[in-house]
TrEMBL record:
It comes from Microbulbifer aggregans. It holds the Pfam family Ldh_2. Its EC number is 1.1.1.-. GO terms for molecular function: oxidoreductase activity. InterPro entries: Mal/L-sulf/L-lact_DH-like_ah, Mal/L-sulf/L-lact_DH-like_NADP, Mal/L-sulfo/L-lacto_DH-like_sf, Malate/L-lactate_DH-like. It is an enzyme of class 1 (oxidoreductase). This is Putative oxidoreductase YbiC. Belongs to the LDH2/MDH2 oxidoreductase family. Keywords: Oxidoreductase. Gene3D superfamilies: 1.10.1530.10, Hypothetical oxidoreductase yiak, domain 2. PANTHER family: MALATE DEHYDROGENASE (PTHR11091:SF0), OXIDOREDUCTASE-RELATED (PTHR11091). It comes from the Bacteria. The keyword Oxidoreductase applies.
Length: 353
């Protein structure tokens, strides 16, 4: 059976799931859009793959269905909200919308969120920023989570601490979404579910020994920071920086007691930059386009039959193609959503033949 679905059918389906789980229709549609955007861009571990867990949080009361974020501070060009466990994709979408409204006046707008329910794929929030001709920087951390060990330690300290960046360029934006760990927790979980080893030794067991077995992580081990066993001090330093920006500036992090309810709560840092605040848009685009073109023209390694990959090129192409031809879902995603469709009495979409 095909795993390809029309994008609009998936959006309608997931919107109805969230609505039946208790969200207002407009909020449910925003949630569905963020998860769909992740799969359109190719980030399959944090797109529709995360719908099931978000439905569970709503049904179990771990995610707040109603209300608005509390404004803790607002100086126009910067603001801080306490989301108090509102749905992450919805509340962060509201913050992005606010930043885009304000950036024309302020040039640079910075926002932080505390106690947002898990925000899923960071790259999924970037398309509207790109389409407005702006630069987007987004990072988050999870105060209750310790999964990534610092260089030279067997003990986990950091969360995965992803960072996403996008800047308009030529035919596609420069865009990436990467964690400060060698691999993301979603890939470790997927490998465990599929009973396979990871491709490299990107884990440590609880004795500090390198491993590619996902069971080592589940049994008290950790994920290596970016840089791996040899240069992980670089990833650890970057992890610390991102936790300062997200936890430190939002005022919610490792200095606070965490309850079991806080398990997936994110602290978030968002910055939107309008290049026209610094000069002509054409000058900015000339530089970013030149960078991407030069990157594309770099010679591949000897013996390689693939082109040099520029971050954003493949993702933006996949988004355009899948909007037109259908979204290729990872095989396990509909397996996880079908029980929710039955439980919430929502008709699942038909795949495209």
């Amino acid at each position: 059976m095909s795993n390809r679905y029309a994008a609009e059918d998936l959006h309608a389906f997931v919107t109805q799931l969230f609505h039946r789980a208790g969200l207002a229709q407009d909020r449910a549609a925003v949630m569905a859009n963020i998860f769909l955007q992740a799969d359109l861009l190719g980030f399959t571990t944090h797109g529709l793959n995360r719908v099931s867990s978000n439905l569970s949080w709503l049904v179990n009361g771990e995610t707040r269905k109603d209300g608005e974020p509390e404004v803790l501070s607002d100086r126009g060009s910067c603001f801080n909200w306490d989301a108090n466990f509102l749905p992450g994709p919805w509340v962060l979408s509201q913050a992005v919308g606010q930043a885009l409204q304000r950036v024309e006046e302020h040039g640079v707008v910075t926002a932080t969120l505390r106690r947002s329910q898990h925000i899923a794929c960071l790259a999924a929030y970037l398309p509207p920023i790109i389409e407005k001709g702006c630069i987007g920087i987004l990072t988050c951390s999870t105060p209750a989570e310790r999964t990534v060990s610092p260089q030279g330690s067997r003990d986990a300290l950091f969360s995965a601490n992803p960072i996403a960046f996008a800047a308009p360029a030529g035919e596609y934006p420069l865009l990436f979404d990467i964690s400060m760990s060698v691999t993301a927790g979603g890939y470790v979980s997927r490998a465990k579910r599929e009973k396979r080893m990871l491709p490299t030794e990107c884990l440590k067991d609880n004795q500090g020994q390198l491993s590619k077995d996902p069971a080592a992580f589940e049994e008290g081990g950790s994920i290596l920071p970016v840089g791996g066993a040899d240069h992980g001090y670089k990833g650890a330093a970057l992890s610390a920086m991102l936790e300062v920006l997200s936890m430190g500036l939002s005022g919610y992090g490792r200095g606070d007691e965490q309850s079991s309810h806080d398990d997936e709560a994110n602290s978030v840092f968002l910055q939107v930059i309008d290049p026209q605040a610094f000069g002509k848009s054409a000058d900015f685009l000339r530089q970013t386009t030149a960078l991407c073109n030069l990157w594309e023209s770099c010679r591949p390694d000897e013996g390689s039959d693939s082109e040099v990959r520029v971050p954003g090129q493949r993702a933006w192409s996949a988004r355009s193609r899948q909007l037109e031809e259908g979204v290729e879902l990872y095989p396990s995603i509909m397996d996880d959503l079908d029980p929710w469709a039955d439980k919430l009495d929502v008709i699942a979409p038909r795949p495209i033949d």
